[in-house]
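User: Can you help me understand a structure? I only have the sequence.
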Amino acid sequence: PDHLSFASAHLGKKPYETIVVGYGPQILWPDHCVQATRGAEFHKDLGVPHASLVLRKGHHRDIDSYSTFYENDRKTPTGLVGYLRERGFTRVFLAGLAFDFCVRYSAEDAHREEFDVVIFEDACRGIDVNGSMKATHESFRTLGIVTTSTAALR
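Assistant: Let's start by predicting it. Here is the structure, written out as tokens:
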């Protein structure tokens, strides 16, 4: 609650407006994924009893967190890079919400950390704020980040 990225934390501001914070522009979001609420729970059909790591992000009240690798200041690590490297992983597969924010930042950071990246685009959903979907596709093309569909798994 009261996260810097929530419009409700800024008097008179509305969702999808942009403000400037210490690390740069910040889109203000509707309240979402608040800890200890239903919105932060995993989907009931997602069974991952074998998961050895559940990474929580967005828990720093004063910094947003799109990427699973770094907070939005692009410097503060989540610990995922070290976790993956210690286990010898060289490739990451991404899906989720939102394609043009959390998935995008995660993919770009994984690429920056020299992981091969594959995104299952049909298992993602975007928001498309101010052309963010188009910008995401352009970024992925430029970086050589692969997008595919879950049908490719069959």
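Now, to help you interpret it: Residues 99-112 form the longest helix (14 residues). The longest strand covers residues 116-125. Let me know which part you'd like to focus on.
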